Amino acid sequence: MTLSFSVGDIRVDRILEQEVAAFNALEFLPTLTRELLEENRSWLEPLALGPGTDLFVFPMQSYLIRDGRSTILIDSCIGNDKDRPTRAHWHHKTDTAYMDALTAAGVTVEDIDYVMCTHLHPDHVGWNTKLLDGRWVPTFPNARYVFSRKELAHWEKTNSESPVPHFVDSVLPIVEAGRVDLVDSDHAFDHGLHLEPTPGHTPDHFSVHLTSAGQDAVVLGDVIHSPLQCRYPDLVARPDVDRDQAKATRVALMDKYCETDTLICTAHFPSPSIGQFVRHGEAFDFKFRT
């Protein structure tokens, strides 16, 4: 499934791999209480919360960027054939949804010039590689893979202490193939893209800012996972490596772009996933683009 829109002269396609109610809200946001969840159930259901369940609906998706010079994939989702036993809907997946979505957007794997990973969690690096003759090889044969230098160093150290499966199958093969461009998390490219440091979820998480013809958009990555965190920014996500920093980053970013024309492209807000931050009392909300 794709959704196409423009940011000035840049074409953006949302490449959806999966969208299911599968993440227990009270576990994923460990400071969320039952009372607060029930208080907000009416507006979360059915798009952001499975009706009658405690399960967040999280899409797994990439953003495909075409500026007339380069074809860029921001994040690479879950991937097929990956060993993910704690996530049944990710484990040894074999469907064609992701590749079908790329085809529907009019690109092949050979067309991708860059793959930019906002961070190196399993649902953002999965399609970096594919299984070929028993080996993990780059899925996008002509692409350079853009990683934060500090982020990669963190995961290399972690993996050296105890193997990290998604690093071994989806990141390390890219490094070993010599396909990585290491950057700082505030790196500026020469085609209307620059990175914004948004640490906390991981040590050097970045977001990607697009600018063209007076229009702006930001591809957030995992700065924020659920619209509920707009209204309650104190809610931390279990995977956040530094919860205090993640909260500070989240609040600062919402405050920066709130009530502006900047289009916000979220990773895990329910479809259509894009919109603007707006005020909601002393906190924030998200106005989905229709």
Give the helix/strand class: alpha/beta
Low-confidence stretches: none
Give the spatial strand order of the biggest sheet: 1-2-3-4-5-8-9
CATH-level-4 superfamily name: Ribonuclease Z/Hydroxyacylglutathione hydrolase-like
Main beta sheet strand tally, sense and closure: 7 strands, mixed
The overall average pLDDT, rounded, is: 97
Residue share in β-strands:
25-35%
Order of helices and strands: EEHHEEHEEEEHHHEEEEHHEEE
CATH fold category name: Metallo-beta-lactamase, Chain A
The CATH first-level class comes to: Alpha Beta
CATH architecture: 4-Layer Sandwich
The termini sit apart by 16 Å
Percent of residues in helices comes to 10-25%
Instruction: Please report the total strand number as a whole number.
Output: 15
